[in-house]
Target: Peroxisomal trans-2-enoyl-CoA reductase
Amino acid sequence: MARDYGRSSAFRPGLLAGKAALVTGGGTGIGLAIARELLTLGCDVSIVSRSAVKLDAALDALRRDGACVGRARAQPCNVRSEADVRGAVAGALEAFGRLDFLVNNGGGQFISPAADLSANGFRAVVETNLLGTFLACREAFTQYMREHGGAIVNITMVNRNGFPRMAHSGAARAGVLNLARSLATEWASSGVRINCVAPGIVYTPSGFENYGAMGEPFLNAVTPAVPCKRLGTAEEVASAVVWLLSEGAAYVTGQELSVDGGLSLVGYPFPLADTGEHSAFPVYGDAAVLPPAARL
Ligand SMILES: CCC/C=C/C(=O)SCCNC(=O)CCNC(=O)[C@H](O)C(C)(C)COP(=O)([O-])OP(=O)([O-])OC[C@H]1O[C@@H](n2cnc3c(N)ncnc32)[C@H](O)[C@@H]1OP(=O)([O-])[O-]
Ligand SMILES: NC(=O)C1=CN([C@@H]2O[C@H](COP(=O)(O)OP(=O)(O)OC[C@H]3O[C@@H](n4cnc5c(N)ncnc54)[C@H](OP(=O)(O)O)[C@@H]3O)[C@@H](O)[C@H]2O)C=CC1
Model:
């Protein structure tokens, strides 16, 4: 039985007082947990995403939450739209007068075999996760961080060995990590750090609703493969994000931190059976020496 650490912050109260952050996808799931943690530590937070309904509900919950010390505001923004992103950064600056932190969390994908992906479906996922992250980084930098410094965290995924059935997203997030490495170097002279957090399988009702009937069987199949033998929580991701934003990570830039209960060590988020048994690979050499079970 897992011990429950509860919901209070692992960080010292007031750690981020006087700072301001922008969190994309901050109305639900992991983004909402990040916003809550930042607010609890005294940071002012702008949350942005496409749906005004989700943002309003989140803002209401955050403002009612007695632990949230910082000021919260929301602004609709589709990160695929250059104009929206420019406006979101400008709105955050107008409201709080500064932008110390950017968290590129808004994103997602759908489950599909690569062969069935349309160009538009692939483009939608790449635009959401990679282009959206680039636009938000560029606007945060040009509108504020170039002159004042800052810290950026991008949410990626555990994709070191690819991400079958989510090839579009695996590719986009690999691009996000490489982008972070480039920007970490280009923007170091402005005092800007940029890192990534790669969640393993983190249960968020909002996120897994997205997969409909495929969600639950996936979760049931993948949980035993995680060395920690459980799914992660949004708060566990938020905690890593806050550390990377904080002064405690002052010497860390261009890195990716997996928050995955060890999943990346065993390397394969989808159960192997998902790709089906087959004997499609011809053998070079003496097939007869292979044990029968290794031959298929
Ligand atoms: C699992 C563990 C790891 C990860 C966990 C998480 O991330 S949890 C977090 C999970 N949370 C999220 O993922 C939340 C955010 N995710 C999203 O909003 C969507 O997944 C999105 C990013 C695709 C944008 O969608 P949108 O509707 O705004 O996009 P659009 O209108 O621009 O359409 C462009 C193309 O995409 C196609 N298409 C779209 N859906 C599907 C589908 N289910 N099936 C097939 N195709 C689909 C659509 O048909 C069209 O192609 P067509 O027909 O013209 O050739
Ligand atoms: N949960 C998990 O196991 C994992 C999650 N991740 C990633 O973590 C992030 C958060 O996921 P999670 O909280 O679980 O799921 P959610 O579906 O709750 O979060 C996705 C958020 O992104 C926002 N969003 C989606 N598209 C856009 C867009 N075009 N412009 C602006 N905002 C957008 C959504 O809000 P709205 O609909 O209002 O736009 C929503 O708030 C996502 O990037 C996800 O892919 C990565 C690995 C594993």
